[in-house]
Specification:
single chain; 31% strand
Length: 265
C-alpha cells in the first residue's frame, strides 16, 4: 500500500493553440524536480474549452496522443488530461491517461455542458473508467461531471473487501462566476465517496471572454483541503496515503452502508 505523489498543473491556456500549450506544459512538467507518480492537466489542456472541434480535433495517435505518452515515459509517471479527439465523424472531449510503459486508457466526458451547447458538437461517453496504477484505483472525470454525484458514486464490494476506486479526479474549465460550486462539490464528492479527490482547473481568460480562477486542489477522504491554489499559475504537489484512507474506511464504513443501485442509459 504505497503512497501516491500527485502533481496538479494549473495554467493560463493559449486559446486554440495546440503547439503553444504543449510547449508550455512541457516546460512546467520538466520544472518538477521531485519524483511524482501522477501528473494531472486541465480539461482541453491543449486548446482551451472550445466548441470548434472541426478545426482542433486530432484522430487517435497524432500529436497530443504522442506527446502525452512521451511525457509519461520521460518522467516515469502517469500523465492525464482531456483534449478533443475525432473518431469517424464524431468528436469527443476525451480524458487520456498515459502510462510510462507506453500504454494508455481513455474516458469520454459523460455530461456535456448544455450552457455552452457542448452536446451539439461532441458525443457523450457511456462508460466510467477506473485505472489501476501502483496499487491505486483511479477514476478520472471531466468538469461538468462534478455536478452529478451518481456518476461518481463509489461502491464497496463486501466479497473481496474492495472499493471501486481510491482516488477521484476532475479536470476542468470551470468559470469564475460558479467557482463556489466547484469548491463545494469537490469536498462533497470526497466526503460521500470516502476518497481522495483532486480538482485541476485552468486560470486566465479564454477566447470567448470567460474568466477562470483556478482553485485547483486536493481534498482527503474527510473533505479536508490538503492543498489549494487560487488564481495563479503553478503546480500543486501532494503525497497521498492509501494506508490512512483504508484505515478510515474500515473504521467508518459509510460507503458500505450506502444504497446499492445500477445505472442504465
Amino acid at each position: 500500500m504505497s503512497d501516491l505523489t500527485v502533481a496538479i498543473l494549473q495554467a493560463n491556456l493559449h486559446w486554440e493553440n495546440i503547439d503553444a500549450n504543449l510547449a508550455m506544459f512541457e516546460e512546467q512538467i520538466w520544472s518538477i524536480n521531485e519524483t511524482v507518480d501522477f501528473i494531472v492537466l486541465p480539461e482541453m489542456f491543449n486548446t482551451g474549452f472550445s466548441m470548434t472541434p472541426e478545426k482542433l480535433a486530432e484522430v487517435p495517435g497524432l500529436k497530443t496522443h504522442k506527446w502525452l505518452l512521451q511525457m509519461a515515459s520521460q518522467k516515469k509517471a502517469l500523465v492525464g488530461g482531456s483534449y478533443i479527439v475525432k473518431e469517424g465523424t464524431n468528436y469527443f472531449n476525451r480524458f487520456f491517461m498515459a502510462f510510462p510503459d507506453g500504454t494508455f486508457q481513455t474516458y469520454d466526458k459523460r455530461h456535456l455542458f448544455s450552457l455552452a451547447k457542448e452536446e451539439m458538437f461532441f458525443e457523450a461517453g457511456t462508460e466510467r473508467l477506473v485505472v489501476e496504477y501502483k496499487g491505486w484505483k483511479i477514476c478520472p472525470l471531466v468538469c461538468y461531471d462534478l455536478r452529478f454525484p451518481v456518476w461518481a458514486k463509489n461502491k464497496f464490494d463486501a466479497s473481496n473487501q474492495s472499493f471501486d476506486y481510491d482516488l477521484l479526479l476532475y479536470v476542468a474549465s470551470w468559470p469564475k462566476p460558479r467557482i463556489n460550486a466547484w469548491d463545494t462539490l469537490l469536498k462533497a464528492r470526497a466526503i460521500e465517496n470516502q476518497s481522495y479527490t483532486l480538482g485541476c482547473n485552468r486560470i486566465g481568460e479564454d477566447g470567448n471572454g470567460y474568466a477562470y480562477v483556478g482553485h485547483s486542489g486536493v481534498c482527503d477522504y474527510l473533505g479536508e483541503t490538503l492543498d489549494f491554489k487560487d488564481d495563479q499559475e503553478g503546480i500543486i504537489i501532494q503525497r497521498l496515503s492509501k494506508a490512512q484512507q483504508d484505515e478510515f474506511r474500515t473504521k467508518f464504513p459509510f460507503v458500505a452502508d450506502s444504497d446499492n443501485f445500477s445505472l442504465t442509459y
